[in-house]
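Example record

One chain of 500 residues, shown exactly as stored in the release files.
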Amino acid sequence: MKQPDPSRTAGVGQHDFVSTHQLHTDEQREAADEVTARIRESGLQTIRVIIVDQHGQPRGKFLSPDAAIAAFRNGLDFSGAIYSLDSANTVFPPAFVRGGGFGIEEFTGFPDIVIVPDPTTFQVLPWSPGTGWMLSDAYFSNGRPMPLDPRRILRNQLERLEQRSLSYLSGLEVEFYITRLCDPNISLDATTQPAAVPRVEPFQLGYQYLSEVRLDSVNETLIALRDGLGAVGLLPRSMEDEWGPGQMEFSLSPRPGLGTADAMVLFRSAIKQICARRGLLATFMCKPILPNFFASGWHLHLSLLDSAGENAFTAEDEVLSELGVSYIGGLLEHAAAMTAFATPTVNGYTRFQPYSFAPDRICWAVENRGAMVRVQGGPGDPGTHLEDRVGEPAANPYLYLAADLAAGLDGVERQLQPPARIEEDPYVAEAKPLPTSLDEALDALDKDTLYREQFGTEFVDYYLMMKRAETGRHRAACEAADDPDDASAAWQMREYFEFY
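Predicted structure tokens for this chain:
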């Protein structure tokens, strides 16, 4: 007897939603056939279908094989309520008013959206037996791309590049913390371990930057991370120990287009899941407010390639091509507004301190780790690229990359010339300071017309509403407390430590 078509019987999505609205490319259609065969032949029992939310967090459903295969054709119904949740997972807009509280008609009444799996992102998770994983894109039920979908926002910027016969190559260099969950019977000082946060202790002790012996002391965990990441195509190019106890830095090889942002989502999720299985808690919060912890950064390495695949930032006689210099001009022109996406938490602004190896002002330099934009390479070097050092590890990867691209492309299109590069100490340079708070960055975003033009007014107004609700809750917690500093520390730990 002929088996029924699972796309008709699995009960997911809208029948033929993907083909009706022409949502898959030829590459994705071919990949869907290959992934379908792989799911059936490999005996997978669960497929995790993931949508990345406004915070850069993976949300998803665990599906049966037939349901996942059907979703390639029909999409998958998914609660649009996630877009009403702030970083504390509480509803921030007046949700049941028309437009969902943020003026988008299709969001009236907390409706479902339709997410469409991208089969080119499919992976088998080695740490979860019989389990596949893939990312998705978000649409309204009428087929309109969902304007709050960060993956779509980055894709739009990549399409702008393609129109100029250019492409984007970028790589990850990310710092994060691994901590150890304490025995619940251990009593810890409440001033250093704020309430409502899991009691943790350092995974490592001491300060031995780039120490082989220190790394070897946690080798079993590093091997587990290496093997797990490698099995999903994210083999670390390097693993290092940083200044803080349990602070690590991993870097990955460059990837084209969406690849780096997609990799960051899976990277953070994999690190957290593999560590959790070992009784550890990994966090990408910029600076956990714990004894002797330092801030972590996310350095975005990037270059543009021409139609022949050659590095468009390389110049024969100069450290950087004219196109590369104009790209920097755009980054500096829009730096304050861009920071709202690259450093999207209250906590992240603790990082912008003098002589911290993080930037504190808007400037660029060659091979200088104190500048906001660092040029690596030189005349005739095909590996010449920029390092955008303004990001924190908790940033939504799609918005960070898209914000960088939008600013850089504005510089290219307008042929902007940046101020002279810094030759000595960037921390005493005559340059505008970076925003010192999330509120300040949001005000800059509100005034910068570029991101409304490129990301859409719907999205920017939504993002401002969400983030201002976050900073408002932080401010209220501090104002209500006898000791605002302690209240701020406790609030930041509750808000970000586990969430990110």
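Notes: DSSP finds 15 helices and 16 strands in the chain.
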